[in-house]
Amino acid sequence: MSKQLKIVVLALVSFLVGTSEYIIAGILDRIAATMHISLIAAGQLITVFSLVYALGTPVIIALTSRFDRRKLLLYFLGLFVIANVLAFLLPGYEWFIAARILMALGAGVVVVTALTVASKIAPEGKQASAIATVITGFTASLIVGVPLGRLVAASWDWKLVFAGIAFLGLLSMLVIASTIPPLEAEAHVPLKKQLSLLKQPRIGLALLVTFFWLGGYSITYTYISPYLIEISGMSEALLSTTLLAFGIASLIGSKAGGYSADRQGVKRTLLVGMALHVFSLAMLNWTSHSSFAIVAVLILWSFAAWSSGPTQQYHLVTMAPESSSIMLSLNSSVMQLSMAAGAGIGGIAVSAISLSSITWIGAAGVAIAFVVVGVSYRSAHRKVTSNASSAA
Question: Of 60, 54, 58, 32, nearest to 45 (Cα)?
Fold first, then answer.
């Protein structure tokens, strides 16, 4: 098997992990109905997954830094497969929560390790391209995995999604075991050293932007399926198509964000993207009774929201280029924490206020991120000006 095909297998693994995480938002109403639980309780399945992913991944990666990367990938991909089998077989909400915890522990390590393996097996000079291919697999889960999961849930049983993920995960394990050679462990980076970067104010502010940007997104996205069905009265067929369009818009937005950051700069790209993000979330309730209008607003929302993703990652890497892998790991953990917080806050909003309130509360979260971007760049500008004055 060629190196490129091996990297494609790793991208498939990343796709499976992304689907297992995001699919809950696409079938939230189905889970609530079949398990006889509230939408709020179903939404906490995302909170639990993201929280375990965020807190468990950096600790496990630090503890297993001396492990052979291939073995580590196989062990935790095996855990991920077992967790999906349990999610398919075991009855009841409590058992499903337990399966989600195991799934998250496996998923976090699998993604980080897959990125590492891809960079090691890629041809010289194509490491960045290999990493981008694996990340694209994760992004593709929004485009294909979530609408496909919704289609399976509507036609048969939503639990079949997890059976399918387990089957494809097992096939991936067999391919990886037979084609990828043992890989040396990386240099050990203590967790304390990883966390020491948080002491730098500008890095802390940048991570705060990630938290509020994705947290605001997650507040609304977690409950998007019941919102579109109950508030907008969207049909099942249109919902699957809308989720597909939403996913495609996220990919285009991600590409556009990277392009804009290179040419217009990080600050302008973030501010414009987040302004559109706030606007589109605020417009959801205004357009909820027109199928055409709300689909258009959803596409704008997805495009705007994900234009900030690559921009933020690039921004953080440039802040500490000598610790780029640590910065990306920290950002990944903050992203998962923000998704957990967003799902939790969204659940409280649905319970205490209404389902329609998630749009303006989500918009408020992104607006805070917008303000933090402005404050952080103003502080940086003042520091540069002060240094210049001192030098003069």
Answer: 32
Please tell me the distance from the alpha carbon of residue 217 to that of residue 302, in angstroms, as a whole number. 9
Q: What is the mean pLDDT of residues 86-94?
A: 90
Backbone φ and ψ of 287, nearest 5°: -110, 10
Which among 172, 148, 139, 153 has a CA at the least distance from the CA of 306? 139
Taking only the tens place, the pLDDT of each residue in 93-108 is 899 999 999 999 998 8
* pTM of the predicted model as reported, rounded to 2 decimal places: 0.77
State how far the Cα of 253 lies from the Cα of 376, in Å rounded to an integer.
Answer: 24
Q: Which of 5, 55, 6 is nearest to 183 (CA)?
A: 6
Domain boundary among 173, 188, 203: 188
354 in the same domain as 218: yes
Residues ≥6 apart with Cβ < 8 Å to 332: 54, 57, 111, 112
H or E element, residue 228:
none
- More confident of the two residues 216 and 238: 216
Which of 172, 188, 204 is at the close of a domain? 188
Short-list 17, 87, 93, CA closest to 50: 17
Give dist(CA 270, CA 78) in Å, integer.
38
In degrees, rounded to 5, the angle at the alpha carbon of residue 243 between the alpha carbons of residues 238 and 245 is: 95
Note whether 18 and 149 are within 8 A (CB): no
Judge if 90 and 169 occupy the same domain: yes
Range of the domain at 300: 191-392
Q: Considering only CA atoms, which of 21, 194, 172, 44 is closest in space to residue 108?
A: 21
Mean pLDDT (the chain, rounded): 83
Domains identified in the chain, total number: 2
For 56-65, 122-131, 142-151, 244-253, which range has the lowest pLDDT when averaged over its residues?
122-131
CA terminus-to-terminus distance, the chain: 61
Q: CA-CA distance, 328 to 185, in Å (whole number)?
A: 19
Distance (Å, whole) CA 45 – CA 324: 31
